[in-house]
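Cross-check.
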Amino acid sequence: MTGTAAVITGASRGIGLALTRARLSRSRQELHLGHEGSRLEKLFAVCRNPSSELLGLAASTPRVQIVQGSLTSATGPADLATAIRQGCAADGLMLSELYNIAGSACAPFFCHMDCLYVSICLILREPKLGVEPERRLEDMANLDGMLNTFAINSFAPIRLIGALAPQFCSHDQMVRVASWSARVGSITDNRLGGWYSYRASKAAQNSFTKSAAIELQRRKQRKGGAAVVAVHPGTVDTALSAPFQRNVKHEILRPEASAQMLMDLILHLQLEDNGKFFAYDGTEIPW
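Predicted model, tokenized:
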């Protein structure tokens, strides 16, 4: 096997769709990763319900294979991993990249923290699930909402990494795994408090990512190695963020710009970057 494959979750719209387009463009340029000749041959676009844009992209090239499923159901990650394994086996490909964007939804949600908006595929507020951002200690009463927040933000990403681990460890190609986190998940960087469940769920995701980095590097020590990181995508301009942009004091990125910068960051990860937390511009964020 010489060709490689990548997985992008939340690929139907927003940053996920922009990343899918950007990664496909790189593969068309025959971008070489790791070992010479091991260019990307297939991109597995994971989502619950494909958008017309993603369907059109998949129709335009056999390199894109849409895989539908849920990351929060009991068997969802395992079912997705099976479909991806079968797709790789059919073409003799090695799975070497994971862009771990989505929790249970493909569309981005937005969080507000003193005029800071973070665009990522996660959950902060969803009344149907009982999820509301807690501003005060007295708000920490809705156990169901807290559990749903952790199920989507914390457990879904690591469960997918776990389901794909056997495929990552089955070859000698270097593996790059990036999970979309948020700067507000940094415990060291927390100077404002509030948003208790959201912050904690992203901090938990970061902890999961760090542990996964240690294990995958150990398991692939003589098999190409691994670079597993958490990334912060910045504030991204989408229709959902439009009503709030007047309060944003810093740069607002187009989805394509965020995707390109993150793609540059992830594709240039080296073994020494394993277990780190990066912003979209390449600066390291403290855990």
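The chain is about 35% helix and 20% strand. The domain at 4-279 is CATH 3.40.50.720 (Rossmann fold). Passed to J.P. for a second look.
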